[in-house]
Amino acid sequence: MTPMRHAVILAGGSGTRLWPASRRARPKQFLALGGAASLLAATARRVRSAAPAVLIVTAADQAEAARAEVPAAEIVPEPAARNTAAALGLAATHLVARDPDAVLGAFPADQHVGDEAGFGAVVERAFAAAERGDVIVTIGLRPTRAETGFGWLELGGARGELGAPVRDVARFVEKPDLARATAFAASGYHLWNGGMFFVRARRLLDELARHLPATAAGLATIERALVAGDHAAAAVATAAVYPGLPTVSIDHGVMERAADVVAVPGDFGWSDVGSWAAVAELLPRDAAGNARTGDAVIVDGADNLALTDAGVIALVGVSGLAVIRAGDAVLVLPTARAQEVRAAVEALTAAGLSRYL
Amino acid sequence: MTPMRHAVILAGGSGTRLWPASRRARPKQFLALGGAASLLAATARRVRSAAPAVLIVTAADQAEAARAEVPAAEIVPEPAARNTAAALGLAATHLVARDPDAVLGAFPADQHVGDEAGFGAVVERAFAAAERGDVIVTIGLRPTRAETGFGWLELGGARGELGAPVRDVARFVEKPDLARATAFAASGYHLWNGGMFFVRARRLLDELARHLPATAAGLATIERALVAGDHAAAAVATAAVYPGLPTVSIDHGVMERAADVVAVPGDFGWSDVGSWAAVAELLPRDAAGNARTGDAVIVDGADNLALTDAGVIALVGVSGLAVIRAGDAVLVLPTARAQEVRAAVEALTAAGLSRYL
To answer: Which helix (H) or strand (E) holds B203?
Structure first.
């Protein structure tokens, strides 16, 4: 019998790269960016065809919002943010407690996919590979630019026994410099790490025990309560041990160190929606290259991004700007400097205006 | 006995040069720009020392707002906007009906004055000149730049009998080209026309009869009702005749054609507050030349104007921009192109978004 597939959606993000749309109380995964539904709801809908059981790991204070977005999902709240190794470990712990053979696919909650059918086919291959072999499967996105802000995978030899396109991952390279990124983008055997992983839940916990033993020990306490069927005790254990777990990403804590990591190449209009420049790429543009949502007029300007969630934006004689109005805040910066939103966030904090974050 | 002085404040403006702060329903004179009070309230306070009786001519639908700003003033509502010749004629008609010797000083409601004591002294000289001679007195502002958007006065001979600094106005020049404006700014005998006039009310009506007979005939109908003490009839007459009066400015309709126009020079930090660039001149600036009102942070940017009436504005890596958030609208344009706000207004109208005007 094929073990049951579970989609784990990691919705713990609290990033400010899309401020002012993204706020502490309403992070990016709750925003509709490049679509009608929130990124979280779109992710849940997208993964459901491959794995009908959806589990969302999210911050405790966002559990209700997540439930509203994805009513059919199981929500596992995190008492504190401890990055993706702990979050994915917590999900795996819940899954093995009820199904020792469970296979999980982990998906960040805040990505965009243009080609949903293509995505579904790749996810099917990735789940199948994780079921055939005792391996960790990741999806490598075909690069479209020499991106220095992403992690990259270097492909190794073919693993045809796991499915035609599957190959070993020779190594992970986090945020290469521009020269390396340029070489990677041209090599043909370097792909972007999309942060999606497919693995038997028990194997993931074994990897945590090997590479992050403190994480694994804490999770084992929670697992004992869950296996005993004592959900109150499990909640108490989670509240007690989770905040003490190491704060480390699954990439850095496990994937970069684990043996038998393989990749399925994918090319399905993927975006991490990681900056206003990335949002601009998802939107239709007029003949002058201007993209907009909401009411906006642009006179004598090109290549602007004008987004507003209320009211109107009017631009005259400016080009290459991102002008974002969201809630009580307006951000203006060159789209080419979209990474510098953090400078605005830092300036607001320094000015005693962190109530706007 | 000295005839009584009356300040007439012309508050009929409906300009869009300061959109989005200025709206159809709340034009510029109701805004606080460069000060704590609205321009209208500041004007009323400023003129009261020279002329305790204040009469405000304003659009009928703004009469209540004007009354709220200046409770002690008499409000004369205009049934329709017919520019300043009709508005000032209507004020003069009300004044002569109760005081045939009334002397009026007319002041636009939407100007800024930095040196109020200096302003008061010049206004005193202007009223005194209008009382001594049967002349029309205007205030000429010492130019600080070769402004092509203003009307200019060319001074003629001295009129010492009206007070030491008074001189004839040889002619009015409306909006000269840059070459002429540059010559004017350097000549020493060209001044900006500030749109302030001092004249016996009856003399003003006589000038209207000479140069704008249709205006004078209409006003005479209103005057007869007022002289009879029948305010209901006067209101009916105003509603009947005023909308049919010619739409012409007092400058073009009367001042440019009248004999015996004289000027008192003034230099009291005057601004017409006629654009966002002009507003920027009124505000304090930080070391990088940025001016702001409301919550704003500016990172790596110089010479910006960041104004918000609510929430926060964050600018990163932009310079020389005016970013204005007012009510439900955000405007972004280079301050050097501040005159092009009208292009935004036209684009909004063309896009069916005139609800934001």
So the answer is: helix B201-211
Judged against a pLDDT cut of 70, whether residue A1 lies above it is answered with no
**pLDDT (0 to 100) of residue A98:** 92
What's the whole-number mean pLDDT along residues A164-172?
95
Predicted confidence band of residue B25 (pLDDT cuts 50, 70, 90):
confident
Q: Amino acid identity of A182?
A: T
**Nearest-by-CA chain B residue for A312:** B329
- Length, in residues, of chain A: 357
What pLDDT sits at residue A2?
66
A243 in contact with B, Cβ within 8 Å: no
A and B: number of Cβ contacts within 8 A: 131
CATH of domain A5-271: 3.90.550.10
* pTM listed for this prediction: 0.88
Residue of chain B whose alpha carbon sits nearest to that of A316: B333
Percentages helix, strand, coil for chain A, rounded to the nearest 5? 40, 30, 30
**Alpha-carbon radius of gyration of chain A:** 21
The CA angle B348-A277-A350, to the nearest 5 degrees, is 90
Tell me, what's the pLDDT at B1? 52
E-state strands within B64-113: 74-78, 103-108, 112-113
Give CA torsion, residues A255, A258, A262, A263, to 10 deg.
10
Closest residue in A to B350 (Cα) is: A297
For strands B103-108 and B136-141, give the pairing. unpaired
* Chain B residues within 8 A of A315 when measuring between CB atoms: 331-333, 344
User: pLDDT for B202-236, tens place per residue?
Assistant: 999 999 999 999 999 999 999 999 999 888 999 99
Structure tokens at A334: 């060159």
Which distant-in-sequence residues (6+ apart) come within 8 Å of A239 by Cβ? A79
Cβ proximity of A47 and A197 under 8 Å? no
Q: How far apart are CA A344 and CA A321, in angstroms?
A: 15
* Residues of B whose CB is below 8 A from A318: 321, 332-334
Q: d(Cα B45, Cα B54) in Å, to the nearest integer?
A: 10
Dist CA B178 CA B155 (whole Å): 19
Which residues have C-beta within 8 Å of that of residue B164, sequence separation ≥ 6?
none
A300 close to B (CB below 8 A):
yes
Residues in CB range of B257: below 8 A, 6 or more apart: B211
Query: Are the C-beta atoms of residues A15 and A30 closer than 8 Å to each other?
Result: no
Sketch the domain layout of chain A as residue ranges: 5-271, 276-356
Residue numbers in B near A298 (CB within 8 A): 347
CB-based contact, B344 to chain A, within 8 Å: yes
Q: B36 pLDDT band (50/70/90 cuts)? A: confident
Distance from CA of A314 to the nearest CA of B (A): 5
What is the Cα–Cα distance from B197 to B133, expressed in whole angstroms?
A: 14
Beta carbons of A276 and B323 less than 8 angstroms apart: no
- What's the mean pLDDT when you consider all of chain B? 95
Q: Please say if the pLDDT value at position A35 is more than 80.
A: no
- Find the CB nearest A348 among B20, B314, B351: B314
**Chain A residues inside the 8 Å CB shell of B348:** 297, 312, 314
